Prior knowledge:
By secondary structure, the chain is of the alpha/beta class. The chain has helices spanning 14-25, 44-48, 62-68, 85-101, 124-139, 155-159, 187-200, 227-238, 249-257, 266-280, 290-295, 302-312, and strands at residues 4-8, 34-38, 53-56, 72-78, 106-112, 143-148, 167-171, 216-219, 243-247.
Amino acid sequence: xxxxxxxxxxxxxxxxxxxxxxxxxxxxxxxxxxxxxxxxxxxxxxxxxxxxxxxxxxxxxxxxxxxxxxxxxxxxxxxxxxxxxxxxxxxxxxxxxxxxxxxxxxxxxxxxxxxxxxxxxxxxxxxxxxxxxxxxxxxxxxxxxxxxxxxxxxxxxxxxxxxxxxxxxxxxxxxxxxxxxxxxxxxxxxxxxxxxxxxxxxxxxxxxxxxxxxxxxxxxxxxxxxxxxxxxxxxxxxxxxxxxxxxxxxxxxxxxxxxxxxxxxxxxxxxxxxxxxxxxxxxxxxxxxxxxxxxxxxxxxxxxxxxxxxxxxxxxxxxxxxxxxx
Length: 326
Ligand SMILES: NC(=O)c1ccc[n+]([C@@H]2O[C@H](COP(=O)([O-])OP(=O)(O)OC[C@H]3O[C@@H](n4cnc5c(N)ncnc54)[C@H](OP(=O)(O)O)[C@@H]3O)[C@@H](O)[C@H]2O)c1
């Protein structure tokens, strides 16, 4: 039997669902050429009802991955949503081991853009992405690392903003948060760009050259904006006033943890301080043209996305801002 052209992980999530949608409806790939996956077999009918094939793939269970990855040409490997880096590294090691054993043709790993084309970011969750890329390199598999820009859609998480918020708290650090620079990307546009790349292949885009030994393609918005700029975008989009308040780092951690609507613990805000320092140091500022080339138009900037999102829905929330919703 000929290998399945595409196996997609993460298809029940926001990014993977958009990739699947565009492969089917923009690029008119035959549903039978695509295998969707989930940890839960209960999602089977959702995909099979569209004619798409389905397999269970759970990063925690190597056996499911070995079965799922049999006879597959292109594996879209969505990074796990696990927040604990040790657990995430084990899950990702399972995916790579299974891809090796199943002799997958090429792995397209959806990584994250902190550090640009380098490995210098100290931000906690980026470390698992660096480690996964290193493991892919050692594996001998053919792979591309798609370093995805920071989601503009996840802005409530980065600002700890809720529709009820009257002000956004920022830590007083150096360089100051007014100088933070993030080349945010819209999740839908990332999905669109990834689907185009999978459907058409790299050869169609000779100006997009995977960089470094890790074969990195950086997918970013068209310019870097600051976290404080996003507060301005909320104000414009909702037509209400939201202030910005600056506190010393420990004070900021304590005040953010106290009565947090999402119930996030102190450790979460301690990690958020490292994130904020990273984006003030320029970890996410690099802009690359690859996304614009793949979309065939200028992508949305972070402030444009945020303004649109809160204009469309004043009560916009982001699931990862709430501990119980993860
Ligand atoms: N670029 C950014 O700023 C940014 C922001 C947030 C997240 N991310 C990363 O990008 C990934 C995709 O984003 P998203 O917005 O689509 O996330 P999402 O909506 O939360 O969906 C996560 C997807 O990953 C799958 N998944 C999670 N853990 C898995 C595991 N252990 N084994 C197999 N599948 C697993 C889930 O499948 P099932 O539940 O059906 O098994 C689900 O389809 C996230 O998982 C996260 O690593 C990036």
